[in-house]
Design goal:
The chain has one domain. 32% of the residues lie in helices and 19% in strands. The chain has 2 helices and 7 strands; from the N terminus they run ααβββββββ.
Length: 183
């Protein structure tokens, strides 16, 4: 007599075929993916903050170079007496190309209505202002604004060494308030 085996009864005692994940394995994989996503997002935030800081530093360096060029133009033209007038001007006007995130000149702006990560010139205070991304911290200092102003600095009256140059006033783009991680 021949025995007939049905496919349903073809299970050998002690071994069973498993198809797919168990609930425990699925939970482990989901928690691992959640931890990796959390690490990635926190790292991405740090990279974005650092990119914003570097972009601001590059813009400030370009503005300072533009100021130096403007001062040199006045010296070459023999118009040193016009140096104090530069102190109230918008330093962005001295650049060949304005930053792409420059909003323009405002008089008493409503800062909370302006977009983050943008520059503007406050004409009422003669300050160039950068609105930080709300979550950004520059050098441990938390602020929403970085404020810069072109200021006139008088050269020291008595210097240690006699110089051949005339002690003339100097202009500088100074950051107002706290240092905020920028120099």
């Amino acid at each position: 007599m021949t025995k007939c085996h049905s496919p349903k009864n073809n299970v050998v005692a002690g071994s069973s075929r498993q198809r797919g994940f168990t609930l425990f394995e699925l939970a482990v994989v989901a928690s691992l993916i959640a931890v990796l996503a959390g690490v990635l997002l926190s790292r991405l935030t740090v990279v974005q903050q650092e990119a914003e800081r570097v972009a601001v530093q590059q813009t400030v360096a370009a503005l300072r170079a533009g100021l130096r060029m403007k001062v040199l133009q006045l010296y070459v033209a023999g118009q040193q007496n016009q140096l104090p007038a530069l102190a109230g001007q918008n330093p962005v006007d001295w650049l060949l190309e304005k930053p792409v995130n420059y909003l323009g000149t405002y008089t008493a702006p409503a800062i909370e209505k302006l977009p983050q990560s943008h520059w503007f010139f406050d004409q009422s205070n003669a300050e160039l202002i950068y609105i930080l991304n709300r979550g950004n911290i520059f050098g441990g200092y938390r602020s929403e604004l970085l404020q810069f102003k072109v200021s006139l600095q008088q050269a020291p009256l008595a210097s240690a060494k006699p110089s051949s140059q005339v002690d003339a006033p100097q202009l500088a783009l100074m950051q107002m308030g706290e240092a905020g991680g920028l120099k």
